[in-house]
Specification:
The chain is of the alpha+beta class.
Length: 940
Amino acid sequence: MEHNKKKLIILLSIASVAALSIIFRRRRQKKNRRAARCYLHTDPKPQYTFKRVLADNSYSPFNHLNLDGLEEKSHPYEADITALIDNPPVEFKFLEGVDVDLEMNDSYVLVDTESQLTQLADALSKEKVFAVDTEQHSLRSFLGFTALIQISTKKDDYLVDTIALHDSMSILHPVFADPNICKVFHGADGDVVWLQRDFHLYVVNLFDTAKACEVLSKPQKSLAYLLETYCSVEKNKSLQREDWRNRPLPVDMVQYARADAHYLLCIANCLIAEMKELDIEYSSCHDDKFHFVLEASRRSNMICLQLYTKDIEDSPGESAASSILFRQLNSQGGGQISNEAKFQDIVRQLCAWRDLMARIHDESTRYVLSDQAIVAIADKAPTTQEEICSIVTQADMNVDASLFPSPSPLLCCHWGDVCQIMLDKLGSLDNFFPATLQECLGPHGSCPLSIFNYALLVNSHLKLTTRFVPKQNGVKNLKQVAKKNSRELFIKKFSCKSPVYHNCRIYANDGRLLCYCDRRKLEWYLRRDLAKLVEEDPPAIMLLFEPKGRPEDEDNDFYIQSKKNICVGCGVGNHYLRYRVIPSCYRVHFPEHLKSHRSHDIVLLCVDCHEIAHAAAEKYKRQISAEFGIPLYVQKVVDSNQTLVISDLSDPVVNFEESGVSPLQLRAAAKALLRHGPEMPTSRCEELTQIVMKYYGGREISKEDLERALVVGMTPHEIRRLEKKRGLSLKHSTRTALPDKQQEIRAGSRTLATVTGRVTCYSLDSLDAAVDVSFATTDDALEEETLSKTQDMGLCMITDSDTSNPLPCNDVNSYTSEVSDTEGVFASNANNNFQHSVQGAVNSTYPRNDGSVQSKHNSKLSLLGHGPHGKQVVDHLLKEYGEEGIRQFCQRWRQVFVDTVHPRFLPTGWDVMHSGRREFGEFSVYNPAKKVAGDGDAND
């Protein structure tokens, strides 16, 4: 028995050892397979030879060159560039006598060693001007990199192999930053930031031939157009998409690259000569102070102030997911999704996975997985490798296989991750990201470690939600954490959920670019067969009719420029909010042709820049208020019906200081009493009750009075929103049912008391107000009741700027018969004349307005904000100075914005002096002539 037990133990031991050996062998084989499966082991990239990169694929921000302890976000050469903007080199004599070989011989210098680069720097330091262009590679790189730099002087052409010399390019730093040497580019917006990103090369003293085309109002500003116009050279555009990593470069690519820089000096010389001729031609016109050469130089050097920024999202891939969902769910051709919530969740997970895979492998996201493929996978939810590959191949049928192999090698290696997403087994990002990084880049990872993804692995232990949490002495600052959480919540709730600028193009029927717009506008034209689609990515249409005008007719090129979805202040692109440079309280009252379809003064700002801009705008509103003598808020309101009762019982002169109350204070008190009246301390309840009683002339109040006081000064929209929020109707049972339009007019008509030392009276109160009498004439009974209510109810408003000599609120009966439209707002003076006056101290730009002017009240104007103030300011400007006064007013606000935010990423063409005027076609609803005719017909 004991012998058998020993044998059993021996057998169990042998079996255990065998099992353990099998397990360890399988683990080793699995690790070996994973380590060998990544396609990068057999397809190395040229950029993997770089020993140092300034912009890696991590989530950390980009660090710019720091000179002399400057601020982190400041441009290291801002002072030099600003000096050039303020005092540009007007003459440009160094470009005179440029003799360019229009045939372009075969002689050029290939710079691919450090010694040659040093010789080039020495040669360029002796030049006064040289031309520069770059060739980028972005398909097989996450951030992209500069693959070639072309430099041309008056005598020689240089091709700098930036792949071979990537770690030595700082040798050119002094030359590019020298303000005494002019660098000529064409379309330098991208080149300037790419040179910063890859080599810390900062361009100082720039002349951009594209900006010169803008100033000269050329029909086109492409380099191909300029080459053909001035040099009779045709450019082969197909080579632009070639792989510029190839070494050695084929002859045709060398010729293409040389041409971009070789002819630039000649083109610049021709453009400057044209601008100088125009300067001479217009020099005799004293009213026209526009200097063409100077303006071109200013616009060019403004580009130099741009700073490169990495797009860092709080939730990786979120912006791409939002864009995909927006296009899929809102486009005309979007299909029906059976389970929309699950579809959106899969799209977001796939975009997050794609973002991480692209960073790890240093690939572009479009190379990893196209947007079309993400939509197809999310819709069909495949669970096997064969299904995934089939769906992706089908989705990418229109993709060039030589550029985008479909499915990509990366997807073929990591298809299991996609299956995990379909089965919802990846978990949260905080767990998924570190696990994936360890699987790909860890000790037994499947993917090669590189200088681009090393920082990702180092920080893989940090959770995405706490990666940027500030610390003090190793302990998290709770206040800062709370502030950050609050900020993130604000961003999530209020920031734009999809890209604002789609950069779709509209061309005239002769092929000239009319404007950039969003997709919905393109679809509007296409649905009505008013245009045809000429390009798909990004979309572009050509109109099938002759448009009313062209961009040059408005002397503004803002609307024919592509725009980036980033903060114009600091360049942040992971979130943004729309910001109105000219506050809405003013702009809403502008004439239609000065505001309709005008997006010049609506820019994108991040939360931080938005807060700064808003604070400055509020401060400047107070300055405007003091300048025009028009208070920002309605000072006091009283129920005019109760005021009349007091007047009849005692003295005709009412003590408004005791009766009036601020509409904001009135609403807050009524709201508190309705919500918490019974639970309030007696003293507090009596205090709030006294506030409401001031509005009703001191009489006792009921719950119905509190309900009515709650909506004093609110617009119809605000009332409807309040009703919806409270879940009850604020309509009283004693009120006669009226048509919707009349209820809106009644609820929307409000008081306006910004007249110094005067009383403004209305023949209506906040809720049971009189309706439009002219509208009510369609029903005699309704008209009779309306007039009765007009006489019964009213609202009086005053300011407390001059209560020492109060004026009586006139009897409503004395003028209701003269009022044909209750939207008419009148102020009564001591002689019972119905007037509205604007008084106050103003500066020399807008002289004092001592006259009186009758005003129309906007029935949708809230008294709880700055709306009444804005209307009076705009009315005053239009009366005294016309549209020119509005334009100057807008320019003042733009200058406030520029001085406060110091925006470095404003769209091209944005200008403080922008006119804002637009001409409308014959059939446009915004055509002033048509609007006048329509109003006349309505009155008839």
